[in-house]
Structure formats: C-alpha cells, structure tokens
Design a protein that fits this description.
By secondary structure, this protein is mainly α. 52% of the residues lie in helices and 4% in strands. Strands 1-2-3 form a three-stranded antiparallel beta sheet. Strands 4-5 form a two-stranded antiparallel sheet. Strands 6-7 form a two-stranded antiparallel ribbon.
Length: 743
C-alpha cells in the first residue's frame, strides 16, 4: 500500500487504482467530517458535505495549510467494506484530531458530535471565494438502502470551482443511537446489518421522499437443492457434448500426426488450442457435476468407471503437447500458451475436484516438466519450472510411495547430479509397483560413464564418477574388466571425500547405501534370491524358494554387487566419531534388519558382512547413551516429545521393498512437513543414534551374527565373526578406546 496525506489524516492508496482512487480507512472517514466542521467554523473554509465517496483530480492533494488557503476540501473516490457498528461506536467515543493549521492547535471535538452538528449548520460561501450549491438533503438514518434515491440526489448536486467539475451530491451521514446514546446494546435486536452493495452495505438511507421504517432481521436466503435426477440429466448432456468434442480432437491430432512435414499457420494453431480448450472445459463441467455433493454414489463412480481423468490427460492435453513438441521450434509460442492453459485448468481441478487429487498432482508435475524441457534460453526459468515439477512429483510420491513411475520422473529432474539420479532410477525399480521403462531411461545416465571415449564433465567429483561407473557395469553387464578398477578408485577416494564434504555427505551417504541395496536385489529382477524373498507374502513361501535356490550359484552380478557393498561398509563404518556417516549406517541397518526375517536370504550376505566393525560402531554410540530401556524395547523408539519428524533418510527409504516391517503405520502422517522433508536439523543426530542402537538390538536378538549384553550394555559378535579390524590412519585415536589392535 502507498500512503498519501489527506488533510491531517492518511488514506491508503491502492497501487492498481486508476484516476487516483483511494480506499479511506474508517478513521479517515469520520475524521474528515470533524475536520471539515472545524475548518468551516474557525478558519472560514467552505464545507462541502459529502457522502462516503469524494471525486477529485490528483492535483487537489494538498497539505492542510494550502487546503485552508484555497478554502475548499477535495478528496479522492473511496470504496469501503462494511464497517462493524462496534468499531464506529468505539471510534466515536475516543477519536480526537488536532488541527494542523499553524498557530491553531485546537482539538477537533468528538467526531460523532461534529458530524451531527455539521448536518444542522448552514454554511454560506464568502465573497470572492468559490461557491457551492447543494440541494437540501434529510439527515440519514438506518432503514433499508435506497439506491435509486441516492442516485436521484446525486444527479441534482453541483460543485462550482475555478474550473468546471462534475456535479455530485452526497447526503450527510448520521449514525443512529439508542436512547442511552449507544450505537448498539446486546438486548437491542432492532438494529441489524442488512445486505447492500459496496460502501452502502449494512446501512439504510433516507432521502426527502422516503419514509423511515423499522429494520427486521433478514433470514438466510433459501437454497434450492439440486436433485440427483437433475444431476444425472446434466451429466448426460455434458457427456454427449464431451464425446463429440473429444472425437474431433482425436481426429485432428491423428490427421496432423500423419502429416509430419505439414506446416500450420498461427490461425490454425490457435484453432487447435481453442478446440482443446473447449474439451478441457467440458471435462471440467463433467467433473463438477458428477462429483457434486448431492450426487449419488453411482454418479460419483462414473468418472472412475470410464477413466475420465486419464482420458482428459491423453486426449485433451498429452496428444496435443506431443504434436506441438514434434513441430518445434515453429510451434514454441503456441506450446507455451497451451501449457499455461492446461496448467491453470489442472490447478483448478486440484482445488475443486479432490476425489482425483493424486492424478491432478502428477499431471501438474508432467506439465511442469514439459515447460522445463522446452526452455533453452532462460536458465532461471528452467530452474524455476524444474523446482515446480519436482515439488509436484515429490508430493505425489509422498501420497503414493510404492509407485516407481514417480521416482523415474524425479530422476530426470535430478540432472546434473549423477548420484541422485542413480538413487531415483534404482528406487523406481525396487518398489512394489516398479517402473520397468526405467531400465531404458537409466542407460542415458550410465552410458557416458561406460563409454571410455566420452569426456566426463569436470563438475562431477571423481568419487561419484567411479561409483556410478561401477553400478553401470553391474546394471548393463558391459565392461566387466573395469569393475574392480572402478571399485578401487571409489573406495580409495571415499574416506578423504567424506572428510572434505562433512555434513554434505549425509545426503550422499543414504543415496549410496540405497543404491548398493538395490544392486543386491539385482535392480529388481525376479530371479534374484533376495528379491524373491522380500516379495513373498509369507515367510514360509520364502523359505521354500531359498532351499531350491541355495543349491545354485548366486550369480556373478550378485557377487560383484556384494563386493561393492562390503568395501563401502569397511570405509564408512570406520569413521566412529563422525556423525555425518550415521544416515548411511542407519540405512544399511534397516536393510539388514529386514533380511533377518528371511534366514536363507540373510545367509547370502552374513559371511562377508563386517559384523565386528558394526559392533564397534554401535558401542561407540552407546558410550553417552543412558536410556537403555528404549532401545531394548520391541516398540519403535518414538521421539520423546511424541511429535513424529521423520529423518531425511526415512523419506528416501519410504516405499522401498524392505521397509514395511520397520516404519510404524502412521510414521509419515505429519502433513506439515512437505518441501522441508530432506532438511537436516541438529536435533536429528541424537534421534538417529537411538534408532541405530534400537536396530542393533533387534538384529542382535536373532542371535545369528550380532550379540548384545544387557548387563554391561555392550554389543559383540558370535565367535565365527571375531576378527581384527584394520584401522584407517585418521581413526586410530578413536579405536584406542575399544582396545582393537591394528593388523
């Protein structure tokens, strides 16, 4: 708001107003009357009674001393909302304004008395000054509004100034009072606000031809209910028109798709946009009618029965967008126009038809991705639309965490971060509803790392390049001779890389851990032993499968994936005093904890898993911990404040095949966490440590590899896995407290 002075008061000017229209506050309206009375009686200014609206030119905005010199008051046009009577009463009792004329200093009396006195006083224009002619108007009271009378009075008023101005009469305003000089009392039901228009809403007015009447309470207008029969007829009519327009859209798109070389002019593109806009409007009307609150359950199910949301997206948006995309760059402007049109329609459906909210969210993400993909000139716009699309896909994945298609879309938007892309691609293949098309899309990420002739961008860190290359070899089966070299490069740079990036590696840690776990599942291939176990509905079924498969070779790909995982564990878990590796440790233990429910699947990794290193890491977390009953309990360790705030890696693991036995059912029910779900706060470190210790106790409870002594509160391993740990140079000091010798 921009504020300009009006006399001794301030009025707020709206930036978008034309002809200098001001919205004057309640304070300003009453103060104007009081000041006008004061100037007229003491300083000789001509008082021009006005109504709630005043019309002048911008040049008439003058400071108070110049207003007095010119002997006139000029104000801007105002438009007011309804003013509560209690606010008017409060103002009339307390408001007093001092005169700003130099040397005066008088206080303007109570505005209630000033306004009432002004209506009884006749002001005669002085000689050699501007004159004002007004028709006589009756004092205002508060019956129902009479707009015709107001218009009639306004048409008879004229104001003469030095230059010709428009004529206007606005009658004086009086606020009604109860016998005890109060605007309103709790027991008085005669005074009630009545509907009106604009600044006249809530008050009544009288002119010379109108009689004073009592105000009666107006009941709420009756609402005419829509019957189900009417809705059925409406839906039938809408659907008939919808099918006709839809058929025309399909016909036109098919005809244009077959003519690849055909060029359309602007008028033809605009006609196609208008045709598809009509189709979208028909679908919108259909959804509003079929999902009306008065609709029967059968009518509500029609949209789902006939797949109306999918049809709208396919025939109303997607087909036309693909046609526009294939005609780029000539169709760029028209494609932008249609994307904005479709995006606004989807946001409208998202707000008005919540029954298909999940579909609208994903459609909004798709439209944002289209808009991002065609932006080549403005990098800022591209980043903005990437963020918008990522927001919608992330929101959709929170509502449908087991749908791999959404993670595939997020992987595309994760460019140019290869580690994050690998995480999303592998996750899209290792959820209950995998997106098999991701097996082709992931090669666009892996191909540059597998092709030795391809020059890698310098902005990618060497440790990330070697890690993605190792997974590329595992996934594609190509360049197998380079696998060991890639692993050695990765683990050789990993420890120093963690030390340099510090807290930034917390996010990279759970990306690496989840990608390695997906590799152990052979990226969701059905013949994998662990994948078969996890996807089984019952443990007994999984055991039968394991017995058959245990006599066969685990496969070269599985052995390589297991080697990559174990080498990563040996580097990361040695950083005992580093809280930045805890997200990685937490993610690995969640995967291991789930395998304890499938003994034969557990047998595929326990021989090479660094159990001794895990026990030492757990003991390092136990040193300052005191609430042993929480980690020894079978109950999931909820935060002590009983406010669930999932950890960032919780959201990253959400929906994966191996987390259904870990998270409580309502763990992700906090809807207030949206875009900040991957934000790390300091308080999460202690909660993460407690969760890791709880998982350690659960794994030790199986008694197969890890042990936990409740009397001395120490973790250990079974004799089979007792080994000496080779300690990294940076962590030798941390290992002294555990009495572990170096090899």
């Amino acid at each position: 708001m921009v504020y300009e002075p009006v006399g001794c008061i301030w009025a707020g000017l709206s930036p978008g107003c034309s002809d200098s229209t001001a919205v004057i506050s309640t304070f300003a309206l009453f103060a104007v009357e009081g000041l006008a009375n004061h100037f007229a009686t003491k300083h000789g200014s001509t008082y021009i009674p006005r109504h709630w609206a005043f019309k002048v030119s911008p040049a008439s905005m003058l400071p108070p001393h110049r207003l007095a010199a010119r002997r006139s008051f000029q104000f801007f046009a105002c438009t007011l909302e309804d003013i509560p009577l209690s606010a008017i009463e409060s103002f009339s009792r307390t408001s007093k304004i001092s005169c700003s004329i130099e040397g005066c200093g008088d206080l303007v009396p109570n505005t209630s008395d000033s306004i009432e006195a002004c209506t009884r006083r006749t002001f005669t224009p002085r000689e050699n000054q501007r004159t004002t002619r007004m028709t006589q108007s009756q004092p205002l009271r508060f019956p129902s509004p009479n707009r015709e009378a107001l218009d009639r009075n306004a048409s008879t008023a004229t104001i003469e100034a030095e230059k010709p101005q428009s004529t206007l009469l606005l009658p004086r305003l009086l606020r009604p009072k109860t016998p005890d000089e109060k605007l309103w009392t709790p027991g008085d039901g005669s005074l009630h606000r009545v509907p009106g228009h604009g600044c006249f809403a809530g008050y009544g007015y009288l002119d010379g031809s109108q009689e004073e009447t009592d105000i009666a309470l107006i009941k709420q207008p009756k609402t005419r209910l829509v019957t189900n029969e009417q809705l059925v007829a409406e839906v039938k009519g809408i659907y008939a028109g919808l099918v006709m327009v839809e058929s025309k859209c399909i016909e036109v798109i098919n005809a244009q798709s077959s003519q690849i070389d055909a060029k359309l002019n602007d008028e033809q593109w605009q006609a196609l946009i208008a045709l598809h806009r009509t189709l979208l409007h028909e679908y919108h009307d259909f959804f509003l009618a079929s999902q009306h609150p008065s609709a029967s359950p059968v009518l509500r199910r029609l949209a789902s029965k006939y797949a109306m949301p999918a049809r709208m997206w396919r025939h109303g948006i997607y087909s036309f967008l693909e046609l526009l995309r294939n005609r780029l760059p000539m169709s760029l402007e028209h494609m932008l126009t249609f994307i904005y049109l479709a995006y606004s329609m989807m946001t409208l459906l998202y707000e008005t038809v919540p029954a298909f909210e999940d579909i609208w969210i994903e459609c909004l993400g798709d439209l944002g991705r289209y808009r991002m993909a065609i932006e080549d000139c403005d990098i800022w716009d591209r980043e903005v639309w990437t963020s918008i699309s990522r927001h919608w896909y992330s929101k959709a994945s929170d509502r449908a965490p087991t749908t791999g298609r959404l993670y595939h879309h997020l992987a595309i938007l994760a460019r140019p971060n290869p580690l994050q892309q690998l995480f999303y691609y592998t996750k899209s293949l290792c959820v209950p509803i995998p997106f098999t098309s991701a097996r082709e899309s992931i090669m666009t990420l892996l191909e540059p790392f597998l092709d030795s002739s391809h020059t890698q961008p310098m902005r990618q860190m060497p440790v990330d390049r070697s890690f993605v290359k190792a997974h590329g070899i595992l996934f594609s089966g190509r360049c197998k001779d380079d696998f060991q070299l890639a692993v050695e490069e990765f683990v050789g740079d990993l420890d120093k890389h963690i030390g340099r990036t510090t807290r930034r590696w917390m996010e990279s840690g759970y990306y690496i851990a989840i990608s390695n776990c997906c590799a152990l599942l052979n990226y969701g291939k059905e013949h994998n032993i662990i994948y078969q176990n996890i996807c089984s509905q019952r443990v007994e079924e999984a055991t039968d499968i394991d017995v058959v498969e245990s006599n066969q070779s685990l496969g070269e790909t599985f052995e390589r994936a297991l080697h990559l995982s174990q080498e990563t564990y040996k580097i990361v878990l040695r950083r005992f005093a580093d809280p930045n590796v805890l997200p990685f440790f937490h993610t690995v233990l969640v995967f291991t904890y789930h395998l304890t429910f499938f003994p034969n699947a557990m047998a595929t990794i326990d021989k090479t898993f660094p159990w001794k290193l895990v026990s030492l890491s757990l003991n390092s977390l136990l040193l300052p911990y005191l609430h042993y009953e929480r980690i020894q309990s079978e109950r999931f360790p909820w935060p002590e404040m009983d406010v669930q705030r999932p950890l960032p890696e919780d959201f990253a693991m959400k929906g994966l095949l191996w987390v259904d036995k870990y998270f409580p059912i309502d763990w992700f029910s906090n809807e207030r966490i949206d875009d900040e779900k991957y934000f790390e706060v300091a308080s999460m470190t202690e909660e993460r440590k407690e969760r890791i210790l709880w998982l350690g106790c659960r794994i030790a409870g199986v008694g197969r590899c890890l042990t936990y002594d409740e009397s001395i509160h120490q973790f250990g391993v079974v004799p089979e896995f007792e080994t000496e740990i080779e300690v990294l140079e940076n962590n030798a000091t941390d290992m002294d407290m555990f009495g572990v010798s170096e090899v």
